């Protein structure tokens, strides 16, 4: 009974590993394709696009997907290979066979959908070179998956690993490592990303303070003496008047006429970050460009014209 129970549990684990391996395959393929598309868009820039580079959202998710899913896939496939080596029952398992066929169909559907999206973008005015590179990426991923699983369906339990399959796995592994490394170079290390986020928070705080100072001047006809005067200011919101990392209060002082100055200490150079990532900063936000270290921004309040105010009748 114990031996039969162990055999049943082992069979269940084999099917479970098979299912998880396919999920890891889907995640790896989608992450690889997403990252490749972003590299292509960075290499072949389009002046019509104002998107952000791989440092944001999808780029980080794609890198994380490859780091987690691809090693898991290789590990599970090694276990599955051991379980099927010399074991015709596991190799010819209906569950495994059906998962393989479903995977081939799913990959074909996903790649077809991506190709349709690429063609749609070309018809919408995207550069032709981008189309060629993206379409080539889709077909390369599909070809690699189909080649391996078609070989896997045809092999016998006593067959050794094919030299072509070994070469395919080695090439894919090297490409994944290169993609992960290059993606991290573009997006920056976790420390660099955290420093960038701190600086974005500082700029956001200064923008809110600037809007509130302008509103205060409109109401009072004078500048606030300190940030404390802005606490009860209507129609304005300030998240914080202190540095999010050091908790040091931002510098503020009124200048002559209608000018005032706000100062903060930054950890990155905004122009270098934008240049490295090939991102386009909105023109309205370029007034907050900064270098590394202490930077002061001089601003001038704008008086609202009375004839521009809507009248109620």
Shape: elongated
Structural class: mainly alpha
**Average pLDDT level:** 81
Q: Please state roughly what percent of the residues sit in beta strands, choosing from under 5%, 5-15%, 15-25%, 25-35%, 35-45% or over 45%.
A: 5-15%
Share in helix? 55-70%
Major beta-sheet overview: 3 strands, antiparallel
| N→C terminal distance | 91 Å
Rounded to the nearest angstrom, the radius of gyration is 29 Å
Number of strands: 3
Q: SSE string, helix = H, strand = E?
A: HHHHHHHEEHE
Low-confidence segments, given as residue ranges, are 306-313
Widest β-sheet, arrangement of strands: 1-2-3
Number of helices: 8
Describe the structure.
With 313 residues, the protein is mostly helical. Helix content is 62%, strand content 6%. The protein has eight helices and three strands, in the order H-H-H-H-H-H-H-E-E-H-E. It has a three-stranded antiparallel sheet, covered by helices on one side. Helix 1 runs antiparallel to helix 2 (58-84) and helix 2 runs antiparallel to helix 6 (163-187). The longest helix is centred in the first third of the chain and has 42 residues, at 2-43. The protein is elongated. The N and C termini lie far apart (91 Å).
What topology emerges from the helices and strands here?
Layout: H1 2-43, H2 58-84, H3 88-91, H4 94-123, H5 128-154, H6 163-187, H7 190-220, E1 251-254, E2 259-266, H8 270-277, E3 293-300
Antiparallel strand pairs: 1-2, 2-3
């Amino acid at each position: 009974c114990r031996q039969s129970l162990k055999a049943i549990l082992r069979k269940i684990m084999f099917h479970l590993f098979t299912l998880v391996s396919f999920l890891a395959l889907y995640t790896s393929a989608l992450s690889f394709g997403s990252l490749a598309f972003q590299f292509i868009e960075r290499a072949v820039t389009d002046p019509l696009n104002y998107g952000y580079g791989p440092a944001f959202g999808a780029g980080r998710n794609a890198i994380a997907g490859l780091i987690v899913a691809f090693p898991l896939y290789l590990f599970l496939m090694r276990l599955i290979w051991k379980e099927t080596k010399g074991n015709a029952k596991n190799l010819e398992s209906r569950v495994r066979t059906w998962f393989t066929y479903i995977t081939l169909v799913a990959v074909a559907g996903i790649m077809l959908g991506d190709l349709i999206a690429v063609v749609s973008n070309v018809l919408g005015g995207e550069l032709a070179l981008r189309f060629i590179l993206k379409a080539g990426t889709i077909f390369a991923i599909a070809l690699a998956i189909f080649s391996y699983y078609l070989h896997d369906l045809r092999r016998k339990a006593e067959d050794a690993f094919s030299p072509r399959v070994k070469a395919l796995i080695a090439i894919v592994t090297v490409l994944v490592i290169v993609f992960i490394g290059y993606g991290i170079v573009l997006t920056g290390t976790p420390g660099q990303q955290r420093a960038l986020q701190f600086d974005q928070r500082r700029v956001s705080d200064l923008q809110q303070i600037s809007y509130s100072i302008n509103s205060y001047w409109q109401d009072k006809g004078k500048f606030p003496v300190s940030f404390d005067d802005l606490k009860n200011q209507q129609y304005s919101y300030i998240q914080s008047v202190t540095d999010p990392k050091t908790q040091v209060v931002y510098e503020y002082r009124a200048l002559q006429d209608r000018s005032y100055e706000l100062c903060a200490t930054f950890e990155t150079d905004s122009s270098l970050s934008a240049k490295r990532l090939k991102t386009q900063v909105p023109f309205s936000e370029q007034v907050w460009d900064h270098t590394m270290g202490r930077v002061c921004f001089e601003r001038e309040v704008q008086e609202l014209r009375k004839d521009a105010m809507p009248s109620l009748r």
